[in-house]
Design brief:
147 residues, alpha+beta, Alpha-Beta Plaits, 4-stranded antiparallel beta sheet, 3 helices
Length: 147
């Protein structure tokens, strides 16, 4: 048999709920006992000398010297995005990009920022670097020196 219980809310609205008689309520089920978890594996500590950490190369934005060959790799919508992409490219291609300096330059409208790297020794060095980047699926444009 069901008993009628009336609850009184603070806002003045009454709510009637049907609940079973106390004699009809089921007893609580027995708690389920779980098997103990296996102990965690032991921690192996290595001496500090055997741990090698690798730091990313610092990103420095400078103007390439006048008369130097350079590459334009990408154009993005913010300076921050260009620096982030340069860090990623530099990490992925250290053999190709080591020693090059990043220059971030806005386009005429200021809505895009170009990633330019250099200086390069000459046109042959620029062609060789651009070909290496293209083999790794990174496009580039060769920029001749400004007079």
């Amino acid at each position: 048999m069901l008993a009628r219980t009336t609850w009184y809310a603070l806002g003045g609205d009454d709510e009637t709920v049907m609940v079973p008689e106390p004699a009809q309520m089921a007893t609580a089920p027995e708690p389920v006992r779980m098997a103990a978890a296996p102990p965690p594996p032991p921690v192996v500590r290595r001496p500090a000398a055997s741990i090698v950490t690798r730091q990313a190369a610092p990103v420095v934005a400078r103007v390439a010297p006048v008369g130097a060959w350079r590459l334009q790799i990408i154009s993005l919508s913010s300076r921050k995005a260009v620096r982030r992409e340069w860090a990623r490219l530099n990490t992925a291609n250290p053999d190709l990009l080591r020693g090059l300096t990043l220059t971030v330059s806005p386009n005429r409208s200021g809505s895009m920022f170009r990633m330019r790297v250099g200086p390069l020794a000459g046109r042959d060095a620029a062609n060789k670097l651009c070909a290496g980047l293209k083999r790794r699926r990174t496009g580039c444009l060769i920029l001749r020196p400004k007079p």
